[in-house]
Predict the structure.
Amino acid sequence: MKRKIIIILSVLFIIFMAALFIFYLIKGDSTRWQVALGGIFASALPLLLLRMKHNPFNIPIIINYFLFLFCSLFLGSISSFYLHYKWWDSTLHFYKGLFVGSVAISLYKHFIPEKVRNDVSAWILFLFVLSLSVFASVIWEAYEFIGDLTVTKTMQRGGNKDTMYDLLCGVAGGLIISIYSMIRKQKV
């Protein structure tokens, strides 16, 4: 079932982004066709999960990945939500913190054998989930900074204030999932 969902969502999103790529390439809109091209590659990434013997990510995480792509690439960049709605950027950074925290929990369950998990402190799990969320936020902000230096000047419209606000939103999302993981671990 998981295989089918990955294939269906990936193929649909690749077709969607390829159509946008062709449309904006013909139209001569270089910013949007570049985003659509990136969307083709980003939507193909989950297909790599099919090569794994045991995919650690459940169906909600896979669906949320495509939801994030749709909200950030299509709605945010191509449909200009980032420019028209100031809250859109911070909301996606908050969502990214929640999402990456959920990915961290899946990775923890995948790489730490079940019989060993009882010996792992709830605080270690808390720190792992929070660290991965914060790391993702820092990497994303570095990507925005490098993107503004090399390709566009629109990713960090607010400069340092935008960067810090985005980081705080990402950390807040990660903190919520970290606290949730710690509480769940303590109940076990």
